Amino acid sequence: MKISFFKRINVPVYLAFSGGVDSAVLLHLLIKRKIDVKLLFIHHRGVFCDEEQVFSENLAKELGIELIVKQIDAFKGPGSKEAYWSRERYKIFQDMDRMVLTGHHLDDAVEWYIMSTFQGTPKILEYQNNNVIRPLICVPKSKIYEYANNRNLEHLTDPTNSDPNAGLRNKTRIKLMDNVHECYPGLKTTVSRLIREKEEKRKRNEPPVGN
Q1: pLDDT at 211
Q2: Is 149 left (phi over 0), alpha (psi -120 to 50) or beta?
Q3: What's the average model confidence in pLDDT over 10-27?
Q4: Are 29 and 51 in contact (CB under 8 A)?
Q5: Domain that holds residue 183
Q6: Is pLDDT above 50 for 162?
Q7: Is residue 94 part of a domain?
Q8: What CATH number should be reported for the domain holding residue 67?
Q9: Is 74 a domain residue?
Q10: Rounded CA gap, 152 and 51, in Å?
Q11: Could you give the CA distance from residue 112 to residue 70 in angstroms, rounded to a whole number?
């Protein structure tokens, strides 16, 4: 099976890499397409981060790819740990001198849409936000796993992903999403369409090159 990017990428990039299946598949696709890529690992001081960093360092060495490691200050509150990590990651992304690719996929976008809707402000996870690009944003998670399994791609699984008490996103995915998809089986199609429409609008409003 094949996975297609949302749009073609032909410039040097950083890949936000954690060792998870999403970033492992995206790295494989970038190498296959001969795209100049450097890995960007962000250590956010979570319980699994040390193992993720070692995995990333070993893989980068094996592939002969440069790995850049950044570190986020420990979360001290108040507020949401997830929101804090997200803000700090994007600060780092926006300071980089290349486009930064992330492994966000369609299931992520659907979860974000549902979570933000319940919080009163429905939001669409965009294909591009400044220098951050999500090439797999319209690819279902199931296809990412299928691609990885068919090619025996080595990757890590964060054990906290199966803990509903590890954050609101986990709780939403584990306790809610199966029921949501049972009630609205076309939801992924709807969110994919909204992502494409939002990207078309962004492109229309983008200033011409040179301005």
Answers
A1: 42
A2: alpha
A3: 97
A4: no
A5: 13-203
A6: yes
A7: yes
A8: 3.40.50.620
A9: yes
A10: 20
A11: 25
Total domains in the fold of the chain: 1
Encode the chain in three state secondary structure. CCCCCCCCCCCCEEEECCCEHHHHHHHHHHHHCCCCEEEEEEECCCCCHHHHHHHHHHHHHHHCCCEEEEECCCCCCCCCHHHHHHHHHHHHHHHCCCEEECCCCHHHHHHHHHHHHHCCCCCCCCCEECCEECCCCCCCHHHHHHHHHHCCCCCECCHHHHCHHHCHHHHHHHHCHHHHHHHCCCHHHHHHHHHHHHHHHHHHHCCCCCC
Nearest to 181 by CA among 106, 98, 101, 69: 106
Radius of gyration of the chain, Cα coordinates, nearest whole angstrom:
17
CA distances from 139 to 32, 35, 88, 119 (A): 18, 20, 26, 25
Q: What is the overall mean pLDDT for the chain?
A: 94
Mention every residue, 6+ apart, whose C-beta is less than 8 A from residue 40. Answer: 14, 15, 16, 17, 67, 68, 70, 92, 93, 96, 100
Residue 2 has pLDDT above 80, yes or no: yes
Looking at the domain assignment, is residue 164 inside a domain?
Answer: yes
CA pair distance 30, 10, nearest whole angstrom: 10
Q: Output the six-digit token pair for 205.
A: 């409003």
Task: Identify whether 142 is part of a domain.
Answer: yes
